[in-house]
Design a protein that fits this description.
Layout: H1 3-8, H2 11-14, H3 17-44, H4 49-72, H5 80-108, H6 113-136
Length: about 140
Amino acid sequence: MPFSKILSYSWQQSLDLSRMMRFGVCGLAGMLLDFSVTWFCKEKLKWNKYAANSAGFSVAVINNYLLNRLWTFQDHSAKMLPQFTSFIAVSLAGLLLNNLLLAFFHQQLKMKFYLSKFFAIGMVFLWNYFASSYFTFAV
């Protein structure tokens, strides 16, 4: 990403509250999927909690990309593959941040696992929104 593009980036456009709320609704749908898949993998399949967390995250990413592309950013362009690749890169950075925060809250602060997961998701929301606005959907 050229530095000149970063300087000319319209923060006002990315702060569109209607768009941010739609992004949040998509995120809530993704969070429900994430929690459901995480719970199923951890509790029923007896996976490691971080592997279960990653599985839940992966299902949510696919859901969130499609919902955000069609509804939040209303992007119907043909550039779906590069856009999805960018969304995955942003989401993987979010996953790393999510797992670091999850481990911090759960292991260091001794919070319950699912409460830790909830706080981690909330904190990563802003990263995901602004990075998606800037890198993936270029509003």
